Amino acid sequence: MTVYTIKPLEVGNFPNLPKPVLTYLCGFGETIRVPIVIWAIEGAGERILVDTGSGNPQRALKYHRFMEQAETQRPGIALERIGWNPADIDVLILTHLHWDHCGNNHLFKRARFIVQENELRYAISPLPTHCVAYETPGIGTIPLWLETYSQLDLIRGDHQVAPGISTVHLPGHSPGFQGVLVDTIDGPYLIAGDCVPLYESWKGNEHEKHIPSGVHTDIYSCYQSFEKLEEIGATILPGHDMRIFEKSVYP
Fold this sequence. Notes:
This protein has six helices and eleven strands. The protein is α/β, with parallel strands linked by helices. The radius of gyration is 17 Å and the shape is globular.
């Protein structure tokens, strides 16, 4: 069996995000610091990246919210610190097309970007409440992913990317959201991204087994995706929890 390692890389953070953005109807009045994360998967001669992070802080502040990004957290530099060159990456999986997950696609000139077909369809014409997240022209800008449109590799549903690495369609946060299932020496790990933004989202509370993201297109699908994750039984890596950096590499 092919096994891999997974390295989370912080490429910025939101220092004061209202907690209900990530925990639906929970945490009112609380703000938390959350990272913007890209994931480097390596093994058996493969180097596969998951997501590319947001645009620069100036753009984020203009169209979205305040974010922090140290010079060493710029995606290209963050990858160079682990010995990767963005120009050498052939395969890049996009969990979805929200602005803070695909804002640096332009760095990866040779990559094919694996994205769900229905995610692209929705990103082009979302409901008004999601236009900002997708940076549609209606808010006065052009989405950054559009620059690499010709590099998109559209898929439908679960898909094997390489032996031991598969996308897992997990709609709810967005119609075409996908996690990434990775075989490791310690069993399967699943990069759950915004389907499970915090460890708390997965562990739940006294009232709920799991807590959906506060940003979603279909709350019913969120719960179906939780059920799918339970059936898979992998170790969950959440998308916006600072505690993922307690380890530099998984497993």
